[in-house]
Amino acid sequence: MLYKAAPYYTMFPLEFPLSYLKGAQPGDWVLDPFCGRGTTLYAARLRGLPASGVDVSPVAAAMAAAQLSTASMGEVLQLLQELLKGKTSEVPAGDFWTLAYHPKTLESLVRLRGGLMGLEGDAASLLRLFLLGRLHGPIRKTPTYLSNQMPRTFAPKPNYAVRFWRERGLLPPQVDPVTVVKRVAERYLSNLPPKVRGKVEQGDARNYDFLTLGGPYRFVITSPPYPGMRTYVPDQWLRNWFLGGSPTVSYYYQGQLGFENPERYVQELRRAWLNVARACHPGATLVVRLGSLPSRRDFDPREMISRSLENTPWRLLDIRPAGTAEKGKRQAVQFGKARKAVVEYDGLARLM
Q1: CA distance to 62, 130, 177, per residue, from 120 (Å)
Q2: Are 331 and 293 in contact (CB under 8 A)?
């Protein structure tokens, strides 16, 4: 399943969007205005439905765009080889970079980073996804990640990582990106579902013109940033660097939807639903999955869903606990592993 090619900290299982798309008709457009790594888009693709997505994070937008892409393994590897022949721009320096990647591996990454910046097309989109997914992760006997020992879903902060590696005497292995990408491509490109219409862009759900991507939409299936979860930017700093960002950690939180007081959060979420409604058919279905962290007891997900839909054209039909029978790891499980267990709810609404 292509949507699994790049582990992402906040992710819901494929069964969530698939279950709500069972009644979709051919040609029904699907939208995810907080698309994350693009699971809803891949579910729409499996159903043969056109789909669009938007996310404020460049990392999420890059991952999600690949869910609508199609290319052969040969095309992806050919592009990879061509980019590795390009010029090497400035290689990041410092203790973190010295211990995070073998010098030859880092040089290859810098070439690929420069070559992929601004490059469009399905092969580029898929190569970008595979490299983002393998940029950091655990060391194994058979190299499957490009870095020294790291988590798969988020990048540790430099000071912590350097201390961790030094205390354990961990040195970065020399890893060939071609070998790693070939293994990933063999796994994820062998049985892609047919290509569907659609597009993904970086943008803010509160003001983006979704009709520039497709639609009008009959299904909106999404999971906004959870209240109190504000570390998306710093947690993805290394992937953001690979996409052209800074080689240092950014702690910029201003404007993030999840970093608000309860009243402000409801108001900003309502802005998103009002904006989404402008791009939808009358009678469209909206499904919202929302949870909250124990550190934010002032947020009740059910209340947040209900109140955010007030004074909008959306009529709330039901709020139910998120499906515990869903296969795969729900976001609550992911947060739980970080001792931040979450109770999640699905809100179902109809556009009047």
Answers
A1: 11, 15, 20
A2: no
* Tens of pLDDT, residues 56-104: 999 999 999 999 999 999 999 999 999 999 988 889 999 999 999 999 9
**Residues with Cβ within 8 Å of residue 254, at least 6 apart in sequence:** none
106-129 pLDDT, tens per residue? Answer: 999 999 999 999 999 999 999 999
SS3 string, the chain, reads CHHHCCCCCCCCCCHHHHHHCCCCCCCCEEEECCCCCCHHHHHHHHCCCCEEEEECCHHHHHHHHHCCCCCCHHHHHHHHHHHHCCCCCCCCCCHHHHHHCCHHHHHHHHHHHHHHCCCCCHHHHHHHHHHHHHCCECCCCCCCCCCCECCCCCCCCHHHHHHHHHHHCCCCCCCCHHHHHHHHHHHHCCCCCCCCCEEEEECCCCCCCHHHCCCCEEEEEECCCCCCCCCHHHHCHHHHHHCCCCCCCCCCCCCCCCCCCHHHHHHHHHHHHHHHHCCEEEEEEEEEEEEECCCCCCCCHHHHHHHHHCCCCEEEEEEEECCCCCCCCCHHHHHHHCCCCCEEEEEEEEEC
The residue behind tokens 């490299």 is 131
- The first and second tokens of residue 337, run together, are 């592993």
pTM of the full structure = 0.92
Beta bridge partners of 149: 137
Structure tokens at 286: 């909206």
Report which residue type is found at 61: A
What's the CA gap between 26 and 43, in Å, rounded? 14
- Most distant CA atoms of the chain, gap in Å: 61
